[in-house]
């Protein structure tokens, strides 16, 4: 059982909470019974399980695991009340390909919003999610928790949205952008058979260069006194409309 915070493996696990080291090592950590079960039931590769001493968990045969003390587990955990189970998982390199339904995020920075959007895209039956430049890392701890396991169900790729939008246009996919200026209420439009939906930064919205490429600029009418909708909520409304 590992009990020392100075152990090399423990130090490596702690580094995985930083984007720089996650990318260098090609790994990330998921924590808690639900997320560990989700990754176990997926085709993602688990490097090893981390189990706190005394935690009741059946280890799948042949899967490497490390038993650690409560002190060590709390040092590597990101939750306030750790459940005593975590997994080190190998990252996947998903490649963007034009598809029937794609969600694109332009510089969405809040981890909770990004995780919620990935989860909703999964629920709405979208084919993939693309994280544009400036968007928070898909393997951020808070993003993963907010996805509630959907990160393991739907391809999530990262890159330059300008390139991906152009590829989509060339493939005959209609581009929808969530915007306020020169936009129409989404209810007035029929859902196209193939679409890519772009949602933007919480404060600045979608970059003008991307807006110029959009076939449709749409907005969600506000009937009460709220100034606006959270990007996670707005994205959900538009995704389900596009789903038809």
Automatic annotation (TrEMBL):
Keyword terms, alphabetized: Methyltransferase, Transferase
Domain of life: Bacteria
Cross-referenced Pfam families: MRM3-like_sub_bind, SpoU_methylase
GO cellular component: cytoplasm
One MF term in the entry's GO annotations: RNA binding
Ranges where the RNA 2-O ribose methyltransferase substrate binding domain occurs: 29-95
Family: Belongs to the class IV-like SAM-binding methyltransferase superfamily. RNA methyltransferase TrmH family.
Name the record gives this protein: TrmH family tRNA/rRNA methyltransferase
